Protein: Chemotaxis signal transduction protein (CheW domain)
Amino acid sequence: MKYDWKTIHERLQASQRILEQGWQPSPDETQQILKHRAQRLAKKPQVLEQATDTISVMEFELGEETYAIELSYIDEVCPAKQITPLPGIPAYMLGIMNVRGKIMSVLDIKTFFEIPKKELTNLSQVIILHSDLMEFGIIADRSIGPRIITVNSIQSPLSTFSGVRKEYLKGLTEKQVVILDANKILNDPTIIVNEIFNIT
Structure:
């Protein structure tokens, strides 16, 4: 193959001048560039107009059902050990326990939803809930762990849902996880718990 070295040399010199001077497109080239750019942008996936809202929850078991509470209302989760029963307490209270130097009431909210009670096991956990004015623990038969749930996946509570405290329910997910309204539970004036105090 015979090369036209003169033409190649001229092209190399032209390229070198462009690099040294900085390339500036001609008006026709500019229009072509803008046209290609518009075509590329038109092919990009459309961005959702509104981001999907989510909430972070802690899932746990009560009986044979899965429940969840928003993490923003949870201080910690600890083993259900050394719960001391007290005489004359309501049926929904198991007793009190020492949590990091605080005497805290422990509730069994299965009573609110007519779920049969069961003996505590090694899997039983106490979920510590808090608000500005209230703090207590609730018993979970087993802690499943944190999850992120999309808000639009939460359905209204079923009208057939049994239990005397349906107002404590925030909704039900597509996977049949019952979302509890921790704010209503913590601020229900009918729930009487022992005052929390520091051990000295």
